[in-house]
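Intended use. Records like the one below are meant for learning the mapping from a protein sequence to its folded structure. Do not use them to infer anything beyond what is encoded.
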Amino acid sequence: MGGMHEPFERIVCLTEEPAELLYLLGEQRRIVGISAYTVRPPEARREKPIVSAFMNGSLSKIKALAPDLVIGFSDIQAKYAAELIAAGMQVIIFNQRSIAEILKVIVATGRLVGAEQRARVLVAEYEARIAAVRARTAGRPRPKVYFEEWPDPIITSIRWVSELIELAGGDNIFRELAEHPNAKERIVQARDVIERAPDVVLASWCGKPFDRDKFFARDGFEALRGKPVHELPSSIILQPGPACLTDGLDMLERLLQ
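Structure written out for the chain above:
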């Protein structure tokens, strides 16, 4: 790609999913900084400097890396992104919430680094995996699933997690709330959970370990003691990128069989 159309060369990834994707595309040499929450692939932490958390980061460290692009995710990063933009950096914040949007962002990210074709191949692989899971779970009895993303206030699943649960053979008891992009609109009360009588509980507390004692200490939650309660690592379910479409979906399918 000669001339004027060189892809971005020095990229800071404010979240894990663009970093994981660039490694999958074989374009990791372009990454000059990553987020503290990056665990996939494991070599990213060994090879790349950590320059940010999720809500904020070191402006001076990022500036010193002279990135020609900063990629992030979520409206939650809006204030942080505005600071980087005010410091003269080029910033792209994606806000993908559904599986369809995740696949679009994968292609768009590939395009930014001159690897759109490889990104499209990856997307075709993910679509084939999704179709295979859907075929395997079709016609099975569907357990009612409660997914908890945060304990206090109680926040239930974001849209892509809800879609993955349905794909993997479960019925999300708060499916109608998953449509809301904003976490505040996905707050539920303990009694709502009990009322909807889930068969299976799945939990992934964004960035902190699930605490069973705290979970069962809630009013009425004794009723859930006999049900399967599983924790999923947030790195494979709450990151809207390759991880949730591969290891995340696989784990959901195993847990919901």
